[in-house]
Amino acid sequence: MNSSLSQKSFRHSLFMLFFLFGTIACNDDRAGADEDNQNVFAVLSALPANVIAPATNIQSDEKRDLGRLLFFDPILSGTKNVSCATCHHPNLAFADGIRLSIGVNGMGLGAERRNGVRINRNAPTIINTAFNGIGQNANYNPDQAPMFWDSRAQSLEEQALLPMLNREEMRGPNIPEDQIMDSLLMRLNNIAEYQDLFNQAFGTSEINQSRLLAALSAYERSIIANNSPFDQFMRGDESALSEQEQEGMRDFVEVGCADCHGGPMLSDFELHVLGVPDVNGLTDRGAGNFDFRTPSLRNIALTGPYMHNGEMNSLREVLEFYNDISGNRANNAINDNLNRNDLADEARRLDLNGGDIDEIIAFLGSLTDQDFDRSIPSAVPSGLQVGGDIN
Ligand code: HEC
Ligand code: HEC
Questions:
Q1: Which of 161, 267, 271, 336 has a 20 to 30 A CA-CA distance from 146?
Q2: Which residue among 160, 194, 220 closes a domain?
Q3: Is 123 part of a structural domain of the chain?
Q4: pLDDT tens-digit profile of 273-306?
């Protein structure tokens, strides 16, 4: 009896042991997956729900709505045929979908755009530029937010002035740079509807440069896409990313992409030399500038062609470029004016052999959030063509 009891309790213990082991093994699997993702959680994160506006430009619906009209109104170009939306159009994810932008006196939108003067840069999207400068700790200062491929402007307010002054983008050949702003403000002041809207947004009907830039920026701060599958996953919904996308996300971190493309915008907002080829000798030879800011990768699947000069048409081409300049490869695909030693260390030590390009591309696709404000005004106060000469 005794022995049978002890036998029973022995069997019971064995069972308990198996049961325990089983549970540990199970937990181990989950812990293992979480552990795999620990590297990811350390360097990547979701975007916050809300944007920080500068103390000098408090966000309001009136300013945003005025900013939208200004953004689509070609009255802001010397030639009255280009608006901000000509090159940052909601139907093209607020970029223009072409290699190099075309400004004054161009016609058509996106791939249809023709004639006019070509700019020597690819147009980045303005979606989420309200978050430019944000780090993994979610801190940033909107007055110091880096703008442009080479970070030569800080803040949306400072940036918004420059396309209007630029001869190729909006100013045109006929009005000198030191007169264009006066001339644009005079035009706006002559339109009663704008006086009314500035009054609603700022409390008086005065139309000056800083109010103009404030309204444009308030609109841009409302163009946010912060709920991609990636964001949902980072906020705890494990089903938001497929196995392949998760593998790609871990590869992205492990091979070293996140050394530069880290934080909630997938950018360190630092300048680096990658030596992107300049096939046409158009975009950096004259400028002698090879330092470009790590671009955000949010909505990247929507905003090709890629790189400061739009030299690459697909994400696969971009990945093949990184494969060529990284650790184990020959001196391929590097800008003629540079040596391999000139390239950023983080780029040279990428280890794409340890990752899978298809998976990384799948992960990049999970950074897409199509749910941003695409509304286009049906008319603008100047009575000119909405968006400029884009038909
Ligand atoms: C002719 C095409 C064109 C027009 C018009 C245009 N842009 Fe741009 N935009 C560009 C290009 C090209 C760049 C990149 C230039 C560079 O980095 O040197 C850019 C860059 C930007 C950026 C920086 C984004 C970032 O992350 O660095 C913002 C913001 C922006 N534009 C807003 C505007 C606003 C506001 C207007 C109207 C006042 C405007 N753009 C008009 C083509 C254009
Ligand atoms: C040394 C820092 C660095 C590393 C490492 C790095 N990138 Fe980049 N990335 C950049 C910079 C800088 C640019 C812009 C270069 C230019 O335009 O000349 C860029 C551009 C891109 C673009 C095009 C973005 C656009 O809007 O045109 C993609 C996509 C991209 N990187 C993905 C990756 C992936 C995937 C990896 C890992 C295989 C990676 N990057 C590794 C700094 C880096």
A1: 336
A2: 220
A3: yes
A4: 999 988 766 666 555 678 999 999 999 999 999 9
